[in-house]
Structures
1.
Amino acid sequence: MAQIYDRVALIGLGLIASSMAHKMREAGLAGEIVGTARSAETRETVRELGFCDRVAETAAEAVAGADLVVLCVPVGAMGAVAAEIAPHLAEGATISDVGSTKRAVIEAVAPHLPDGVHFIPAHPVAGTEQSGPHSGFAALFENRWCLMTPEGADLDAVARYEGFWKALGSNVDFMEPDHHDLVLAVTSHAPHLIAYTMVGVADDLGRVTDSEVVEYSAAGFRDFTRIAASDPTMWRDVFLSNKDATLEILGRFTEELFALQRAIRRGDGDHLHAYFTRTRAIRRGIVEAGQDTDAPNFGRGR
Ligand code: NAP
């Protein structure tokens, strides 16, 4: 694979950035990979792991001379990082992010950026419940979607960045940011909140002991516990930055849950059967679209 950018700066060196770096290395996509992280501890770990060619002490230092800069920090930290790097960005550089929500990131980042750079927000819909620089692997983005919300960015810069994500293994699609946030509220954010809640309920339930929960964990609950182990900072920021769409979906979810609750109380088996038949068809559609590669772990696409 040919080199696409001369120097790529990764700001934040956790699961997503380290996976990008591993794949960039494997496919030869960048002349140089420069990374930086907030803590000295993470920077030292990355030096030891060696997936960056250079680890800079600050974000300002990392972006100097980079033709691609990718913000890989929690969504709530994007604005502050953009403010820090803005005066140091090279003319003509592409600036992107990997945040799980898009409208809030655009509102936080765009006002800081100087004229002459190309801002192309993106979201790789791929992840695991692991975090930190040890957790990355080159195949993370393989056959997953990367959703881009460029809103009027330069077409040549967008095409180049699209090629970069395809070379990382992803399929690429374009969306309007608010639509992205609604889609992800349905497919990822609300399901995570439900998993967090279910694990909390099990923990609170005095009549079932913790060891029974762990020992007799059926597949569904085991998946919930895995998802509920996801990084608390990242997910706090996701919900706070995608408030409206998440609340809309949770409102609908609650209505449906009440309807199923009523059907169970009334012994309305027909209602339950019809409902489960409809949802089974949705699952089959996902399998046919090849998006179940991590089955039964529905948390891999975030
Ligand atoms: P991660 O493994 O937890 O790594 C986060 C990185 O951001 C770390 O290097 C951390 O630095 C740094 N950081 C944390 N808080 C910061 C702050 N306030 N200011 C500056 N740097 C800060 O995270 P990740 O899973 O790679 O996620 C990164 C981004 O990708 C998030 O925006 C998330 O929404 C998005 N995303 C995640 C997934 C997923 O499944 N994990 C999937 C798609 C998109 P230290 O190590 O020094 O603390």
2.
Amino acid sequence: MNLIERIAALEKALEDARATTVDEVEKFRVAMLGRNGAVTELFEAFRTVSSEEKRALGQRMNLLKQAAQARLDALRDIVTTDGPGSVRTVIDLSAPARLDPLGTQHPISIVMDRIVGVFTRIGYTVSQGPEVEDDHHNFGALNFPPDHPARDMQDTFFVEGKDRALRTHTSSVQVRVMENSKPPIRTVSPGRVYRNEAISARAHCMFHQVEGLYVDKGVSFADLKGTLDHFTKSLFGPDVTIRMRPSYFPFTEPSAEVDMSCSICGGAGCNICKHSGWVEIMGCGMVDPAVLSNCGIDPEVYSGFAFGMGVERIAQLIYRVPDLRMYWENDVRFLDLFTTAPMRG
Ligand code: PHE
């Protein structure tokens, strides 16, 4: 082969060169640019040719050398990046790790779990039921008279005509538990409920409740009060106290609203408790005997208490989120704030 043929052959070899590992790149370097490499040897041969040939081929020789170096660099790039068929060989151990972002528990789930946890630790079961309910379980069995305003279109989202609606409370689940089991019954029913409210910073048409039910022989109002006192202290610390105000629910008699001494100002008065020192946290009462018999439980033998609270309301006392709507906007900058729950209990 004369010089010009050797140049052409090498130009082609450079173009065809492939490598998938660092070793192959190194072999290429030695074969081309090493001390006995083809390009190096060609330059040796070039030194001995006539000055005419030197003039004619000098530039092409220089281009060949540059092409060999460029090919080497390109092959190095291929094997040190994650191209197809390549092997990642350069690992920067000092580079910060790119961890997959971990999801966080939703603040309402955190609070709901804590509420439920207080009751399961004292022997309550957890019961769940459908969000689309019939009139019987949401209203009828719970003693709502046919003309009760809560059945009105204003409050209730009806589905498929009048007999199906999105449940307005999880008391419906307790009806199902009473219908399907025998006392003693101790259960809490966490879940979503729906009411036809205008959505604002302070109200939503969907929210969460945890309702509780205890039915056995000889259950008294004192048991109710003791249980709720235990609950509030477990969640908000030993310093809070509760008080009860007479109220009305169709399914309990007597009924009460429960206030807790304001956990934020300690009862001294602040804008959360509207300077009263107390915040309302739930409704409760003794299960109306008519409700027990509606559900197949003999009210002459058994009595019970029930209570129900809004999870968002409890969450507000803990997190003080200024606008309820933020809970449901799924903005990760907001949700990421709740990786740990600043709660006791
Ligand atoms: N079900 C009632 C509500 O949704 C709360 C409640 C439950 C009140 C049990 C008394 C007893 O408002």
